[in-house]
Amino acid sequence: MKPATSQTYTELHARSAFSFLRGASTPDDYAIACATLGYHSMALTDIDGFYGTARFHTATKKLGLQAHIGSEITSTDGSRWLLLVETQTGYRNLCRLITRMKMRAGTKNAKPNFAPAANLADFEEFSPGLICLTGGEEGPLARSLNKQTLNRLTGIFGPQNVYLELQRHYNREEEARNQAVIELARSTSLPLVATGGVCHASKLQREVFDVFTCLHHKTTLAAAGRLLAKNSERHLKSAREMAQLFADYPEAIANSQEISQRLKFTLNDLGYQFPEYPLPPGETVSSLLYKLTDEGARGRYRPYHDRARQQIAKELALIEKLQLGGYFLIVWDIVRFCRQQGILSQGRGSAANSAVCYSLGITAVDPVGMDLLFERFLTEERGEWPDIDIDLPSGEQRERAIQYVYQRYGEHGAAMTANVITYRGRMAAREAGKVLGFDVATLNQVARLGVSDAPVSDPKARKFLDIVNALQDMPRHLGQHSGGMVICQGRLDTIVPLEPASMPGRVVVQWDKDDCADMKIIKVDLLGLGMMALLKDCVGLIRDHWREEIDLGQLPADDPKVYKTLQAGDTIGMFQVESRAQQATLPRLKPKNFYDIVVEVALIRPGPIVGQMVHPYLNRRAGREPVDPLHPLLEPVLRRTLGVPLFQEQLLKMAMIAANFTGGEAEELRRAMGFKRSEQRMQEIEVKLRLGMTKNGISAKQQDVIVQSITSFALYGFPESHAASFALIVYASAYFKCHYLAAFTCALLNNQPMGFYSPAVIVKDAQRHGLRVLPVDVNVSEWECTIESDQRHLRLGLCYVHGLRSLAGAAVAKAKPFRDVDDLAHRVPLLNKAELEALAGIGALAKLQTVHRRDALWKAGRAGRRTGPLLAEVPETSPEAPLKQMTIDERLAADYQGTSLTIGPHPLHYRREQLNAMGVTAAAALPQLRNGSNVRIAGGVVVRQRPGTAKGVLFLSMEDETGIANAVVMPDQFEDFRHTILTAPYLLIEGKIQNVDNVIHVLAKRIDPLEAKLPAMPSHDFH
User: Fold this and answer.
1) CA-CA distance, 75 to 686, in Å (whole number)?
2) What's the whole-number average pLDDT of the chain?
3) CA 771 to CA 769: how far, in whole Å?
């Protein structure tokens, strides 16, 4: 017999890690292994889905190989039917079969007896275009080695499409089954086919397979026993090895190649089409888009000037040439729905570079006025669809927009993109610890360790470290993308299988956003943003109480009060610029125009920080350092940001100019910067960068700086268009806070949790800015916070009362006003005794004929004991409580216990005399102190931060009655005072004041708890 070569065998049965704990290699691993072994093609056959199919197709295509498509489909009897796709009809049928079985389960996390499975009717309906292999030990034939099973299979798929599968893993039981299968093949004249029953690409990955097996069965390696693979033979073998293994049945090897030649369909022939927009009579896509754009432009641009006209004409011409008009109309339709429903929406991403998007009301940033480059959004050379992200208010309103898309495009026409959750960091450490049998305490300990910190002296510890490293980036389960929606002309379930999401009413495709992009499937991102809900509420409050209509796209530009506030870093509650790092940067950057805010948004991010770009930019901004564009070739690209690369678009342009990257290579770089495993991919791209820069005569030293600038953005790249869209929200939030403080604070309190600061800090900040805040009052308060129209004061809502159920609170708001406590208890029977006492304890019953809070508590306790009809009319002989009035400290404690805030003076207001005697400087007085002088500060801790980019430095924000003071704790001091820092609600800090460019903080030398009987304040810690 002629020795087998790489062309005589094709592997047709291989699971990847996308079988989720039942395969141990990624599709990329298999593609590389195929190329190494000399394969021309291979089938990936994950369990019940095409989860890894797109990645396998992409990886093999790059290597010049062919990816066959298939899946192991779970049957209702528990067996798995191996189905391979022969034609496009077969692909669509298998997609629909998987979708039906998944959707039938009705939920992502089905109970064991209701897990997704296909019945015989399903197999019969969707059999055309498919080839069936009988499988190994889990296949339908292994369960009953008889002709009846084969007759059933051939009756469904046809005798020409059924192959009897043989696998050999040096297992006696398996070989006995093989002999029975061979006898059946002889008696039925059905062909044999050899497969590897592969679960991992190489022998070495068997260890990961065992770990996954333990995780799947929720056991440990020590206890797994026969659940584990018997040996390491389920790896991908060469054609020569397979030919030797099946030397007694060469036809089984030859048939694998015969089947491979029949499997003509590839994902190149996917057949996806974006939906056609329904046009009014007499309109074309181009004419309708022109009409809508022209109408919108006349409203946006006042006057509609020549620059805008020319830009819009240029964009419309390209959109028409690329036949993308329908895409813009569909996105416009979603935005129109939101507008009609009163749902605030704003497009962001590279769409902010488009004047057409601005005119259609999709985005709110004027790209002509900002001089944004349209080509960053859409070019003829890029060869891919534009990407438009729409920010919506989080919660119910965003869900309404998502459901509109589902309804608009039908049950099988739209779905969310998936999000592949991978093993990273703590998760990998915890799972590895479980498999090794660590106890709970050890598990908690190792989950907190970084991989590099793990002990390696002990053999078990070394094995733990090996497992953690092996698990990194492996798929764990399928999640749901935050807002990416795929829509399709016709049935989406013929393009990619669909399945239920964990959230009711949601459906997801089995591919993530990168897979969809690789397959040229278009998505629209409908993203939830809490600040959008706040801005929407602000617009409504201003309409109701100020009688003014606000359009976010038409806010007064360059408002002096806004920029003065930003320059002072007075930004509590504002979008994106309220963190301590932002507050420390704003006084140094001193934003004077909108583009300065764009830079600010992009500057304080991990990319510029890791790339050491922040201080050079600020120094150049202040004139302390000359502008250096890294290399003369890059001066046009970096001029606007003072020679410092801040934006993703700049980095791509740098690669094209400095390293001669093509548009396609620049796009590959962009994809790498946004990819989960981008650090690895960026290392590969660095080689190309350096080769190109060497050709352009750029020195090694300059190359190092340019490469560091680009690779620093590998995980944190931020596009200029994103920054511009965010900057508009920054400006809007600042504008509302500066000019409509009551509306801004009311909306901010009603949309908690949000941002860095607790409601206690937000209320105190608003009060320092002159807002009068009124207490919860059952005769006035609604469930949410409100504005009292006469003086535009803020009234706290019943939602801030701890322990008060929303149904009971809504009933109180609906039934108000009340005569006295008994009237309240009688007319709102939903209120229980604990809720009445909670209202009394915070002073919410003050206007119900109560003398003070303890009197209210007494009456609430009495009213909470329901009186029977016999005594209902008996008068109360002692209407007032025999209790003393609460002290100031007791009222403060009740406020914080009952609402987590106080509208009265800050707790430290009552301790100021004592603090002065201790030499403590108030927060508001710190600017008057000389830089470098010793100082004592004290306050309630409101923020503890230790960002990963800060090299172990801890940042503390502490509030007193005058404002917020910031302290910096170096790593050594943190270790010395760790317990105090982490547990004391109020701190006394001694150190040196540092005042640089009006940015003030105290470098801590000693930290003590502030010994005072004060209520604990809520803090935002380590987020």
Assistant:
1) 48
2) 88
3) 6
